Every structure is written in C-alpha cells, then in structure tokens.
Amino acid sequence: MQEHDDIDILVSEVGPRDGLQSIKSIMPTAAKKAWIAAQAAAGVREIEVCSFVPAKLLPQMADAAEIVRYARTIPGLTVLALVPNFKGAQNAIEAGAHKIALPLSASETHSKANLRKTHDEVIDEVRRIAELLRSLPAGERPGLEGNVATAFGCTLEGPVPERKVVELARRLMEAGVDEVGLSDTTGYANPTQLRRLIKLVRAEVGHDRLSSVHLHNTRGLGLANALAALEEGITTLDSSLGGLGGCPYAPGASGNIVTEDLVFMLDAMGLRTGIDIEKLLAVRQILVDALPGEALYGFTPEAGLPKGYARGGWGVRAAA
Ligand code: ZN
Questions:
Q1: Ramachandran angles phi, psi of 68, nearest 5°
Q2: Is residue 170 exposed (0-12), middle (13-18) or buried (19+ Cβ within 10 Å)?
Q3: Model pTM?
Q4: φ and ψ at 202, to 5 degrees?
Q5: How far, in Å, is the centroid of ligand 1 from the Cα of 67?
Q6: Which CATH code fits 10-318?
Q7: Residue 208: what pLDDT?
Q8: What values do phi and psi take at 64, rounded to 5?
Q9: Cβ distance 74 to 33 under 8 Å?
C-alpha cells in the first residue's frame, strides 16, 4: 500500500467494481484496463478494481484476476479488491491485491440475499481470512477492511438500528480486520445520521480504525453526506466515475457519488486529492465508448469547470 502524505483526502474510485457489477453490460477487459490506467494517470491513488465472485454469478467480474494483475503494474496505485468470502480472498491474494475489502450487511436479510450468509457466517469468513493473512510474510500481506454495508438503512428491512452497526464494527475488528468502513449501500443516509454513526462507531473501535465511508447519491444527498463525513475527519471517500453503480440486491439503489463532482468539490475547497480534474473529466469518454446506452451521472462533467478555474482551492481564492 502507498503512503499518502502529500494529499488531504484519498478519493477511492470504486466504479470498476461497484459500477460495473450493477449494470447489465459487460465492459471488455481492454476497456477496464484503459479506464484504470487513465484514472491513475489523472492522479487517483486507490481503485477498487473488481470483485472476486464466481463468474456465473457476476459475469461482469470474470476477468478479476487479470485486472488485479494489470493494475498492480501501475506505479503508485493501491489496488483494492472486494471479496465476498474466504475463497474470494484467496483469489485476490493470489492475484496480488494490495488491499481486500469484505462487506458485512448490517441488515441480515440483505446479507443473506447478497452473500447468502448470516452475520455469524460472514464473521467466521473474516476470521479465516485474517488468519490466512497473518500466515503471509509481512511485506506480502494485503490490508483487510471490513465494510458495514446497509449501515444507514436497508431496502428489505427498512431502518437499521445503530447499535447493530456498532456491534458489527466491533465484531469485524475482533475477527481481525485492520479497519472498518461504513457503506450507505442504499442511499438512505443523511448528514446528521452519518455524523452520529461515525462518532458511535469510532467510540467503539477507535478513531483511527474508521477512516472511510462509501456513499451513494440515490436521493441526491451524496455530496452533503461527503461534506458531513469530512467534517467528522473522514479521510477516504469512495466514489464512482460517472456515478456508475448501485446494488443489485437493493432495488432502486443506483449511483455511487460521482467522482468528478466529488473531486471538483474537494479541489475547489482547497483540499488536496492529487487528482488533475481536467484529466479526470476526460476519462469519462472511455465509459461512454465502452458502455453504450448506460446512464452516466454528474453535474461537473455536464456543466464543465468554471471560467478561470485553476486547481487547488480555486473556490476559496475566487471568493476572497
Ligand atoms: Zn456501493
């Protein structure tokens, strides 16, 4: 994994995983590689490149190992892979992922639909993965993150008790993850709720063990939530180029927060992301060409950059 001392906020691109697994089209392997390379060249430091699930369940991810091996060749890029279970983790490690993320749905109904596992069964998988990782030499050991999914509500169960999210975060840490994340899989979160839950989880697992949130823009609150997370001191924000993505088991939950809009907000506020927004905006064309007919979202790509825009706190300077 890379150190990021020269940036304030790590924008973790999840489009090649969250986006592509949620749409019907299958992006050709060459286009995925071009996308990942172009986005890394624009300055994106971390990309969740795939999910290690059986190809018969998600044919969109059939080339997962090849994509990880390719992404590993890009200097300075942290290659993140999502895994649903121990077998997926084995495959991700073998392919060379720098970091592995495993989702644990706070809603047990969603967990059974998504991973076909109860909470206890997922925690058992996490424990086995953590054991496997500990058996590897320190220099070859990927990081392990546990993500509490549907943390702000579930399309199947409705409200999710906060104490349940806190308890699952604690159980993930006990099972051996390095850190936990909170995922608004369904786009239910609002800023007040998000801030409260970040505080509650940190009080349980430790401030530095929760540094990332995964937000969706399903109800238009994506950037409001991102700002609330920033104000709580969250330093990693997941987003998807063109807002591609959602969850196949959470009907209506379409669209991660849009990377282009998020980077515009952060950059205009003077927060360093390391990303060149003009280069980032140009990457979208790869998606347009490779995914004909798929909806892409985002305001900044449509409106363009403001007249006279210059990177690094333009919005702050312009107003002064
Ligand atoms: Zn998502």
A1: -65, -45
A2: middle
A3: 0.95
A4: -65, -35
A5: 19
A6: 3.20.20.70
A7: 97
A8: -50, -50
A9: no
Mean pLDDT in residue range 254-274: 94
How confident is the model over 196-246, as pLDDT tens digits?
Answer: 999 999 999 999 999 999 999 998 999 999 999 999 999 999 999 999 975
Handedness of CA 119, 50, 173, 183 (dihedral sign): negative
- What is the Å distance from ligand 1's center to 215 Cα? 7
CA distance 300 to 147: 29
- pLDDT for residue 254: 61
Half-sphere exposure of 122 (CA within 13 A, CB side): 31
Alpha helix segments (H runs only) across the chain? 20-21, 29-41, 64-71, 86-95, 108-114, 119-134, 162-175, 191-205, 222-231, 259-268, 277-290, 300-303, 314-319
Q: What is the pLDDT of residue 1?
A: 47
Cα of 278 vs centre of ligand 1, distance in Å, is: 25
Name the residue among 284, 252, 277 with its Cα closest to residue 262. Answer: 277
pLDDT, mean of residues 288-299: 92
pLDDT of residue 145: 98
Check: CB of residue 180 under 8 Å from CB of residue 146: yes
CB atoms within 10 A of CB 14: 27
Provide the Cα torsion 239, 51, 177, 180; round to 10°: 20
Taking the centre of ligand 1 as the mean of its atom positions, its distance from the CA of residue 245, in whole angstroms, is 6
Bridge partners (DSSP) listed for residue 13: 47, 239
Q: How far is the CA of 18 from the centre of ligand 1 (A)?
A: 5
Give the tens place of pLDDT for each residue, 137-173.
Answer: 988 899 999 999 999 999 889 999 999 999 999 999 9
Catalytic residues: 247
CB burial of 304-318 (b: ≥16 within 10 Å; e: otherwise) equals ebeeeeeeeebeeee
For residue 209, give the amino acid letter. R
